[in-house]
Amino acid sequence: QVQLVESGGGLVEPGGSLRLSCAPPGDRFLIYRMGWYRQAPGKQREMVATIAHNDLTTYSDSVRGRFTISRDSAKNTAYLQMNSLKLEDTAVYYCNIEVGFPPKNSFWGQGTRVTVSS
């Protein structure tokens, strides 16, 4: 089982910013796509943003214009810059990577909690 390394969650006031990071252990992974998903209490897990090997990005409508996903291919690390945070962004955020060309395996992080509260 692959354990992704996530960091960057925490408590922030509305309007504030946080940056999440995610990386697989080691450098043996051929990553097709990396992404962030979130799950709020009582809700299903939803896609937040993804970035593919060719830097093609996708965003959910609820975060577009406020969040930015990026990657450092040399470090196999993905980042999620979250600006103008809202109360409804409160959730556990999970990193996901798809590996292989075409992608054959998918791995999840343990989740990092983001709480937006005044």
Helix content: under 10%
Distance, first to last CA: 38 Å
Give the number of DSSP strands.
Answer: 11
Order of helical and strand elements: EEEEEEEEEEE
Cα gyration radius (Å): 14 Å
Shape: globular
Largest sheet: 7 strands, mixed
Which whole number gives the mean pLDDT?
Answer: 94
Could you tell me the strand content as a percent range? over 45%
The low-confidence runs, each spanning 5 or more residues with pLDDT under 50, are none
> Tally the helices: what do you get?
0
Alpha-beta classification: mainly beta
What would you note in describing this structure?
With 118 residues, the chain is mainly beta. It has no helices and 11 strands. Strands 2, 4, 5, 6, 9, 10 and 11 form a 7-stranded mixed sheet that branches. The mean pLDDT is 94.
Set down the secondary structure blueprint.
Elements: E1 5-7, E2 10-12, E3 18-23, E4 31-39, E5 46-52, E6 57-59, E7 67-72, E8 77-82, E9 91-99, E10 105-108, E11 112-116
Parallel strand pairs: 2-11
Antiparallel strand pairs: 1-3, 3-8, 4-5, 4-9, 5-6, 7-8, 9-10, 9-11
Kindly summarize this structure in a few lines.
Helices cover 0% and strands 52% of the residues. The protein has strands spanning 5-7, 10-12, 18-23, 31-39, 46-52, 57-59, 67-72, 77-82, 91-99, 105-108, 112-116. The radius of gyration is 14 Å and the shape is globular.
